[in-house]
Write a structure and sequence with these properties.
This protein has eleven helices and 21 strands. By secondary structure, the chain is α/β, with parallel strands linked by helices. It has two domains: 198 residues, Alanine racemase (TIM Barrel, Alpha-Beta Barrel), CATH 3.20.20; 134 residues, Beta Barrel (Lyase, Ornithine Decarboxylase, Chain A, domain 1). The strands form three sheets. Strands 1, 10, 11, 14, 15, 16, 17, 18, 19, 20 and 21 form an eleven-stranded mixed β-sheet that branches. Strands 2-3-4-5-6-7-8-9 form an eight-stranded parallel barrel, surrounded by six helices. Helix 1 crosses helix 3. The relative contact order is 0.14. The model has no long low-confidence stretch (mean pLDDT 97). The structure holds ligand PMH. Ligand PMH binds next to helix 9 and strand 9. Belongs to the alanine racemase family. Its EC number is 5.1.1.1. One of its GO terms (biological process) is peptidoglycan biosynthetic process. This is Alanine racemase.
């Protein structure tokens, strides 16, 4: 297999770059042509790999990137990404000069922030800003027309500052009931209506809103989860107008295979007892890789067959009950397809009683990410070596 030689423990994630590209294109096809696609690549592109996803998204038609905080934006710059990057979260006003130097767009979420930013910004700097309006998410953002007008004035009277965009974020766009969503949208329209002049980029939609609410697109959308091939919620999954392809998969190889006699035990606490003579395989993945203890009992695919994790999951290893004896080195797929059988991210999210967003995010950086295009390995991100 091609992945040999790139890392020295047989556990790795794969990111299908064709799927990322296809998802961006499918979503773009669903949007009017003049709506910009802002690819949300925060949290290391939801665990997929920031610069790799950024490049694939830009190639497929995204025109801008968004991250949560400035270090993530700087990481993209360090990796050679020159596209526009918007920081969605709060940055410290003391750090505005670094943003200006690197051409990173910051979010204005409070009048006081702007006052402080103006005090420290160098005389010859140029800083692009997007104003964030809090229309009901209750996280960060300007909440009144008075404060919005004050922010607009503070920006307009300062030639070092340029109002490049304005946006809000929805709390319930992924729900079928659109009552709260409609209120947020109406408030956003009312707030931006109070500006003297609309900035060039106006955006409000995450994946769910971009796909389900044509009335909320303005001239840009911020798409995260759908780009990775995942539905924003199980509630709207059946109604999504585009076909999404999961990009993330997770694999390991059996490092030890053995037969246990009836009554023999497995793992910490010796809580699992072989009910009969069974074949047991050990996988080199554990909770320190994000394959947390709650996944005990979850199945993995070996030769296309579902094999459950037995006993407690350890820090770096876990054990599975095999359908029969299989050779050491056999691939076990923890997320993804194998011989016509699939374990989806949604299945893992359900087992963990969480949302699909969380699953690739929690697969820790010690699991190398391998990038595939047309079936070929085109890149590797191993944070350890
Ligand atoms: N815009 C903002 C401000 C966001 O916080 C997010 C996701 C997105 C766009 C993209 O949303 P999507 O992935 O649903 O398309 N933010 C988060 C979050 O803070 N927790 O979960 C998702």
């Amino acid at each position: 297999m091609e992945e040999q030689g790139f890392f020295y423990r047989d556990t790795w994630a794969e990111v299908d770059m064709d799927h990322i590209g296809a998802n961006v294109e499918a979503i773009r096809c669903h949007l009017p042509e003049d709506v910009e696609f802002i690819a949300v690549v925060k949290a290391n592109a939801y665990g997929h790999g920031d610069s790799q996803v950024a490049e694939a998204a830009l190639k497929a038609g995204a025109s801008m990137l968004a991250v949560a905080f400035m270090d993530e934006a700087l990481a993209l710059r360090k990796k050679g990404i020159t596209a526009s990057v918007l920081v969605l979260g709060a940055s410290r006003p003391e750090d505005v000069n670094i943003a200006a130097e690197e051409g990173i767009i910051l979010t204005v979420f409070q009048e006081d922030w702007l006052v402080k930013a103006r005090e420290v910004l160098k005389a010859d700097a140029l800083l692009l800003l997007h104003i964030k309006i809090d229309t009901g998410m209750g996280r960060i953002g300007i909440r009144t027309v008075r404060e919005l007008k004050a922010a607009e004035q503070l920006i307009n009277e300062d030639e070092r500052l340029q109002l490049h965009g304005i946006y809000t974020h929805y709390a319930t766009a992924d729900e079928r009931d659109d009552t709260y969503f409609t209120k947020q949208l109406a408030l956003f329209k009312e707030m931006i209506g109070a500006l003297d002049k609309l900035p060039p980029v106006v955006h409000s939609s995450n994946s769910a809103a971009a796909l389900m609410h044509a009335d909320a697109r303005f001239n840009a959308v911020r798409v995260g989860i759908a780009m990775y091939g995942l539905a924003p919620s199980m509630e709207i999954a059946p109604e999504l107008p585009v076909e999404l392809k999961e990009a993330f998969s997770l694999h390991s190889r059996l490092v030890h295979v053995k037969k246990l006699e009836k009554g023999e035990k497995v793992s910490y606490g010796a809580t699992y007892e072989a009910p009969e003579e069974i074949w047991v395989g050990t996988l080199p993945i554990g909770y320190a890789d994000g394959w947390i203890r709650k996944l005990q009992g979850q199945e993995v695919l070996v030769d296309g067959k579902r094999s459950p994790i037995i006993g407690r999951i350890c820090m770096d290893q876990c054990m599975i009950r095999l359908p029969q004896e299989v050779p050491v080195g056999t691939i076990a797929t923890l997320i993804g397809h194998q011989d016509g059988e699939t374990i989806s991210i949604n299945e893992i999210a359900k087992k963990l009683e969480t949302i699909n967003y969380e699953v690739p995010c929690i697969i820790s950086s010690r699991v190398p990410r391998l990038y595939r295009q047309d079936g070929e390995v085109v890149g590797l991100n191993n944070s350890l070596l």
